[in-house]
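task queued by scheduler; priority normal; single chain, no ligands, no partner chains; default sampling; output format set to structure tokens
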Amino acid sequence: MKQFTYLLVLAFTLSYPLYKSFEDKVAFHKKWKALFPAILVSAVVFIAWDIWFAGMHIWSFKPEYTLGIFFWGLPLEEWLFFFIVPYSCVFIYEVMNYFVKKDVLAPYTKLISIVLIALLVITAALHTDRFYTLFTFVMLAAFLIIQQFILKSAWMGRYYLAWTVCIIPFLLVNGVLTSTVLVYDNLENLGLRIYTIPLEDAFYGMLQFLLVIGIYEYLKTKRS
């Protein structure tokens, strides 16, 4: 049964958001035309990143916890991960937008972004020998600068609010995966863990969510 571990985690992650996508309140299925291209672009970026890092042995996968079908060093389930997790996170984002009418974090987004960017840049500068840390933190800092200060995206407050909710299921899913499927080279990360999850994974997920939301919001605005 353990060969179905990764697949079952993905099925669990997708089941509730997909089931609720057709409810009249949020009507998430009506936003698929903007969502699916956003997920596809994000998947291309993060799958390429995944293949690169797996090739450098920054992380690897235990085949006994997968179906054993690999493409370019990644199990089939890992490919699906980059479609299913963004779908579920954007679903949470839209649910939060529906039920929390006021953008409560809007007045604080610049401060949040400045503090976060500063922490990311400082940490990356102090750990240039740890490539997972360096690359993830620099990329997230760069994307935050682009969205917050160059594009001046009006949805940053809602993004931050949604991520505080998304981080809970994200860590639950990652907790299972990092305790079974994934193996990390600790010489390439800070060695700080949330249970079995490298700290960097939380910022990796935050970057993935930011990229998807950025494209998704752009396509929604373009369509409207």
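post-processing summary
- The helical segments are 5-20, 32-55, 76-99, 109-126, 131-150, 156-180, 199-223.
- The mean pLDDT is 95.
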